[in-house]
Design brief:
Layout (H helix, E strand, L loop, with lengths): L3 H9 L4 E5 L3 H10 L3 E4 L3 H4 L11 H11 L7 E5 L9 H13 L4 E5 L5 H9 L4 E6 L5 H4 L9 H16 L4 E5 L3 H11 L2 E5 L7 E4 L1 H4 L26 H13 L11
Parallel strand pairs: 1-2, 1-8, 2-3, 3-4, 4-5, 5-6, 6-7, 7-8
Helix pairs in contact: 2-11, 5-6, 8-9
Bound molecules: 5,10-methenyl-6,7,8-trihydrofolic acid, 3-methyl-2-oxobutanoic acid and magnesium ion.
Enzyme class: transferase
Subunit structure: Homodecamer; pentamer of dimers.
Catalytic activity: (6R)-5,10-methylene-5,6,7,8-tetrahydrofolate + 3-methyl-2-oxobutanoate + H2O = 2-dehydropantoate + (6S)-5,6,7,8-tetrahydrofolate
């Protein structure tokens, strides 16, 4: 069974943490059988399941429903649930109220996007018994502020801000951190300096683990436009696999042996 403690032990011995998003019981069973360590009930479900072009319209009810679908079937996996847009930014009390509902639905940890502005909220949740995962770099709930789904932290000033944000989240008691679309060298520095278990998506090979959206790594997602191209960090593991089970197992193996991500998936 994967626990926060066993994840930290994996980090200590240099074993990579294989993470996938998951939204339902059937895939939770397949992922658990394939040896996926962590399942993220991501608000990416707004794009993947609901067909929207951002994650902004996802509700707490949506997240509760999918967490309840995943949890009973996720045998042994560590389950992280995303806090959706608008469910935690107002105050630590609002975040606590909604995080408690996600935990009651079966999550083991909640994830929220943002840096210094979220430090007080992270401390509030952790002091009240809720494990918290941060999310820095490309934070999709801020897509309209960031001007698109773009790599973050390329300029020195942005990179320093990310380092300060990560340290702040770590000091506040966060135990994991998703790094999305940041240069590999910066993600490596963040991982070394903060002591957090970092889970990268487009953040290079030197994170403590990797995550992909399930439908992306199975080649099952497109935004419906004829010129759709998957993000650079995606590898389709159905290529060369005869079944979904094989693709999931090959993903776990590639994360564990360091062959994913390769340079072509990184910034
Ligand atoms: N299916 C899916 N996969 C994801 O990885 C994902 C979601 N949905 N929804 C929530 C966010 C949004 N994400 C995205 C969405 C698009 C790009 C993208 O189009 N990237 C291109 C262009 C980069 C650029 O313009 O600089 C790339 O080539 O990486 C990246 C991340 C990551 N998350
Ligand atoms: C892409 C991952 C990190 C995520 O936040 C999601 O799936 O919502
Ligand atoms: Mg998310």
């Amino acid at each position: 069974m994967t626990t926060l403690h066993s994840l930290q032990q994996m980090v200590s011995r240099g074993e990579k943490i294989a993470t996938l998003t998951c939204y339902d019981a059937s895939f939770a069973r397949l992922c658990a059988q394939a040896g996926v360590d962590v399942l993220l009930v991501g608000d990416s479900l707004g794009m993947v399941l609901q067909g929207a072009n951002s994650t902004l319209a996802v509700t707490l009810h949506d997240m509760l429903y999918h967490t309840r679908c995943v949890a009973p079937a996720a045998a042994g996996c560590w389950i992280i649930a995303d806090m959706p847009f608008g469910s935690y930014q107002q105050s630590p009390e609002q975040a606590m109220r909604n995080a408690a509902r996600l935990m009651a639905a079966g999550a083991h940890m909640v994830k929220l996007e943002g840096g210094s502005a979220m430090v007080e909220t992270v401390r509030f949740l952790v002091e009240r018994g809720i494990p918290v995962c941060g999310h820095l770099g490309l934070t999709p709930q801020s897509v309209h502020q960031l001007g698109g789904y773009r790599v973050q932290g390329k300029q020195a000033e942005q990179a320093q801000q990310l380092l300060d944000d990560a340290q702040g989240l770590s000091d506040a008691g966060a135990s994991m951190l998703v790094l999305e679309m940041v240069p590999s060298a910066l993600a490596a520095t963040l991982t070394q300096q903060t002591g957090l278990a970092t889970i990268g998506i487009g953040a290079g090979p030197d994170c403590s683990g990797q995550v992909l959206v399930l439908h992306d790594m199975l080649g099952a997602y497109s935004n419906g436009k004829p010129d759709y191209k998957a993000p650079r960090f995606v590898r389709n593991f159905m290529h060369g696999s005869d079944s979904i089970q094989t693709a999931l197992s090959r993903y776990v193996a590639a994360v564990k042996d360091g062959s994913f991500p390769a340079a072509e998936h990184c910034f």
